[in-house]
Amino acid sequence: MTIYYSLTFMLLASEMVTFCLLVFPLPHRVRKPVFKFLSESPIVAKVAYALKISFIFVAILFFDALQRMFRVTAEAEMSKQHGTAHTGMPGVDNSLAARKFYSQRNTYLTGFTLFLSLVLTRTFSLTLDLIHIQEEYTKIQGGASPSASSGNDSKEIADLKAQIAELNKKDRDFETLKKQSAQQAAEFDRLATKYNEATGAVSNKRKD
What we know:
This protein is an all-alpha fold. It has five helices and no strands. The chain has two domains: 3-143, no CATH class; 150-208. Helices cover 89% and strands 0% of the residues. May play a role in anterograde transport of membrane proteins from the endoplasmic reticulum to the Golgi. Belongs to the BCAP29/BCAP31 family.
């Protein structure tokens, strides 16, 4: 294996280890600072930039290996048609079989490296979104402590009771005012009747 394919294999192995660490079920209090450091650290940002450049070279190697694999496969088919190579039979062209194997290996190696880089990027993004959602949920659910929330409920209940008592007091005052008005109206009618009777009696005496 050449030096650049060896480096690609090391990159693939490191991606597999990183993926295992990302999906490992860590507690939220541990996962949050780790991912915060990875997303905000300038050192990690520089490493990520270098990895992006390396993935560009891996993509070039992938297309080159893919082209070689197609070419070697076509040569193997041509050899089979002309009867110069028979897989699994005596007289097989070992050089052609080795070239085919290496081309396929390099294609799979670079292809899986690129694919796993996309998986890692998406997994990291989804994990950050999950952490942010958990923080928002915690703020919504635990914005006020149970004692504080119970204290607020007690205060609201006390305010409602005070309002109800005030309304009952106003209702009683209104009933009292109605009774007083009725009594005053009855007293006015009684005095008016007496006045009319007295006035009528005086006028009758004058006529006599």
